[in-house]
Design a protein that fits this description.
By secondary structure, the chain is an alpha+beta fold. It is built from 1 helix and 9 strands. The strands form 2 sheets. It has a 5-stranded mixed β-sheet, with no helix packed on it. The radius of gyration is 17 Å and the shape is globular. The structure holds copper (II) ion.
């Protein structure tokens, strides 16, 4: 009982926030309700052609947020090899955002779904 009440309240807050965001969206068409853009996040797309766009990313050391968007037909994920961490994981047509703590350095990211990395789904993340 208490649990469902709390869930309902969260839903109301989420809807309220979405409305507030849409209201201050300026001249946009307002149709981008699932816009993956998160302030400060690295935006990466995994395409239906099994590529990352872009394949080269840069971030500042500390908390790094990755916002992954999948193409309409194929699911993907975003794994950072050096720390063996799957930061984001999206279904076809979906988005996912994850945050990871990174020290300065060069990292390799890839998609660990079968055949995706060998098809070219990898890139470089430079943290300074
Ligand atoms: Cu993939």
């Amino acid at each position: 009982m208490a649990r469902s009440l709390r869930s309902a309240r969260h839903l109301v807050l989420a809807v309220g926030a979405a409305v507030a965001l849409a209201a201050c969206g300026g001249g946009d068409d307002g149709a981008t309700t699932d816009d993956p853009a998160v302030a400060g996040a690295l935006a990466v797309t995994g395409t239906d052609g099994l590529k990352f766009e872009p394949t080269s990313l840069e971030a500042e050391a500390g908390e790094v947020t990755v916002s992954l968007t999948c193409g309409e037909a194929v699911a993907h994920n975003f794994v950072i090899e050096e720390i063996d961490d799957k930061v984001a994981d999206c279904n076809a047509g979906g988005t996912d955002t994850g945050t990871v703590e990174l020290e300065a350095g060069e990292y390799t990211f890839y998609c660990d779904l079968p055949g995706h990395r060998s098809a070219g789904m990898e890139g470089t993340l430079t943290v300074a």
